[in-house]
Amino acid sequence: MTAQSPLSFAYWRGCRQGLPFILVILPFGLLFGVAGTEAGLSLTEVMGFSILVIAGASQFTAVQLMTDHASTVMVILAALAVNLRMAMYSASLAPHLGAAPGWARGLVAYFMVDQVFALANADYERAPNQSLSEKLAYYAGACTPVCPLWYVATLAGAWLGKAIPPAFALDFAVPVTFLAMIAPMLRSLPHLVAAAVSIVMALAFSVLPAGTGLILAALCAMAAGAQTELWLIRRRAAQ
């Protein structure tokens, strides 16, 4: 029996660990396809959204604002604000993937969705000494069951439209997705403090324009988590 190469092993490990997200990507994509067509977008426009933007939360934000007849500038700014978390994701993965060739970094940036980031970040923290090629292979594996399904599910939702019964309650996919990503990360006091602060501040800033409150809450959460980490370091040094 031929031994599996490190790159192949990393790729298939990413694939296997990304498979559970099919349970939420499928209804999430279907829901966007339905929402886009109900907002008056053509099949081409709906698919253009999912292929060019490939970011569910900002896509839903944009479609909602378009339905509310918001200005083009407001739609773009709100979608960008929601997607600013990708800048945080990039900063987190840069120490691991920053040395990759430009074309590889471009693909990493394009396919960086919440689920893939969560898997890659956890894997790189667990085994930081993997080679760059192994890390890229894992990333590609994590993308394989997630990103293509997003396109397919969006297409199915746009085609089926209102034929999908409301009783299916597809909107459950959004909170379940983020719970599945965040829960495994709550392993330490700084993580728990950051999560608690983000919840409180997101509620406090909920009156702000779309996306703005989430970004401010994220910044507050990061600051709180960092301060908690520094406090723990000082406490250990003093003992």
Describe the model.
This protein folds into 2 domains: 6-185, no CATH class; 186-239. Helices cover 74% and strands 0% of the residues. It has helices at residues 6-18, 22-38, 43-53, 56-67, 72-82, 85-97, 102-110, 114-126, 132-143, 147-160, 173-182, 189-204, 212-238. The radius of gyration is 19 Å and the shape is globular.
**Largest beta sheet, briefly?**
none
- One letter per element, helices H and strands E, the order comes to HHHHHHHHHHHHH
Count of DSSP strands: 0
Overall average pLDDT: 83
Unreliable stretches: none
Taking all Cα atoms into account, the compactness measure Rg is 19 Å
Distance from N terminus to C terminus (CA atoms, Å) equals 53 Å
The tally of helices reads 13
Strand content: under 5%
Residue share in helices?
over 70%
As for the number of domains, it is 2
